[in-house]
Amino acid sequence: MARNNYATFYALLKSMPGASKEDLVLQWTNGRTASLKEMSEREYSLMIRQLRQQVENLEEKKKARSAVLKQFQLYGIDTTDWDAVDRFCCTPRIAGKPFRYLTIPELKTLRVKMLSIRNKVELKDYEQRRAALGAEMTKGQLPN
Question: Are 9 and 17 in contact (CB under 8 A)?
Fold first, then answer.
């Protein structure tokens, strides 16, 4: 790897909101330096590896959050109102805590739970429509 090419670092830094170059370099050099050029090869490669994992986790969390919010929308929750989303999530049977504090496994579990809830509601609606249609079709007939 050419050490004078820091494109990977800056690409990762760009996708990490709130992080600064100096803070990251100081953290990975234990306060020795704030310069990328003064980092050892080992420090730099370890930092890049860890930053990639963090960015991948951020992307995975973003996908999981989007999937849950989609299920919330389909269920009828206004996802533009974060208070409504948090109120729904804080319900003990749903998640028991605000949406922003849910971990990736909790988000995946919540998505499955919402799919189950929606399927149950849709099945109930289907059965009610079917019963109403059956009653309408047999209206006026004598029982057997």
Answer: no
